[in-house]
Amino acid sequence: MGNQTIYFKKQPRIVATSTIAGPKECEGVVGRYVETALADDMFGESTFEKAECKMLSHVIDGAIANAGLKREEIDMIVSGDLLNQIISASFAARDFSIPFLGVYGACSTMAESLAVAAAFIEGGLTRRAVAATGSHFASAERQYRYPLELGCTRPPQSQWTVTAAGASLVCAEGEGVKITAATLGKVVDFGITDVNNMGAAMAPAAADTILAHFRETKESVEDYDLIVTGDLGALGSRILKDLTWEKGLDISKNHVDCGEIIYNVIEDEFQGGSGAGCSAVVLNSYLYTKMMAGSLKRILFAATGALLSTVSSGQGESIPCITHAVVLER
User: Fold this and answer.
1) I want to staple 126 with a disulfide (CB 3.0 to 4.6 A). Which of 1, 75, 203, 252 is the partner?
2) Would you list the DSSP string of 211-232?
3) pLDDT tens sequence across 229-250
4) Given 3.30.720.120, 3.40.47.40, 3.30.460.10, 2.60.40.10, which CATH number is that of 178-329?
5) Residue range 8-171 in CATH 3.40.1190.20
6) pTM for this entry
7) What letter does residue 328 receive in the DSSP assignment?
């Protein structure tokens, strides 16, 4: 429907999920739904990057096991992360001997992975695919901003990169949450150059995709129990609601943001959570549990991503962003 939205007639479904999160992430409401809660963010490894890779492997294996399947019964892994050359996903995939598609959408990677997996199943090209992503606070800080050892002061507009990973096992049949549509985002850049202000950078991309979704599907906001964005944080969420309201779409009644609910956001927590693991862990734990229990029947999951790097920031470039959305129904 239109240029950006596709419908899945076969309605691929998420039949199992798996999640893991660090101790800070498990202190909030989402922590009660996380499958594996870490006692420390090193996960028994010598570096943060190795811990992030291990977390991703853990949830991929977990989603497969929770479906009662074995590795050799999985046709494809679709995964990505925030590190240079998506090394967490690629290094995790080398242990599985399963066909692998590495994707990168920054913090929008969970929605992008689900859309790609669903499209392969819709086309009859695969039966079972794992969609997964994750992030780690310490590895992302030195990848995008400053190493923790520098002790830089965090400004009030900043978010806290979530240490977590989540995986969905998407199948052609079975009991689960159906993926019925996807709206693929466009790259949007409003000229934000502050690498600490991800919410302001990503909000225009979120608005662009959400507006496109409702324009092309002819649906209304009331058709969804929730419109979930993937880590705009408190400031970005307010900007998003202003941007969509200006275009005649009021999402304030049923909009929630993964970055706002992952932590108990108070003054000391800045703007909330960010990172590819933020929307991944919220979706595959909290939201998936609610949908399987029937308390949520239909959501628009719109994960947001900032497509910057230290190279682009060092050259004075602004931050291009993207948002991909999938419709999930129970």
Assistant:
1) 75
2) HHHHHHH---GGG-SEEEESS-
3) 989 988 999 999 999 999 999 9
4) 3.40.47.40
5) no
6) 0.95
7) E
